[in-house]
Amino acid sequence: MRNEFERLAAQQPIELLSMKRYELPAPSSGQKNDITAWQECVNNSMTQLEHQAVRIENLELMSQHGCNAWKVYNENLVHMIEHAQKTGSKLREMESNWNYEIEKTIVQLEKEIYQIKQQHGEANKENIHQDF
Would you say residue 5 lies in a domain? Predict the structure, then answer.
């Protein structure tokens, strides 16, 4: 990606696609009578023809099933997002309940501490009165 941005910044033209692999060269002039060289050329052309046939078949399959496959994929994504949102909502609710319970427990403990301090304070007052 960086190379492409550098190319754009330098205002260089886009590189043309190499069509070398699609060429079907005949044997060189020194191999015009060589059966093996011609066989290699024929094999190369058959390989490229088969490759093109596979590409055409893939395009036909995509045109027949591609739209439905994308629709199913998108539906799955929607369900996954909905599930994640519901789970997040439940998690937030659980967190809120947890925080409420913690706060409630803190208030209860503070009351108990206050009562204990008052009891100790009264006991200390009684001890002081008994000493005098």
Answer: no
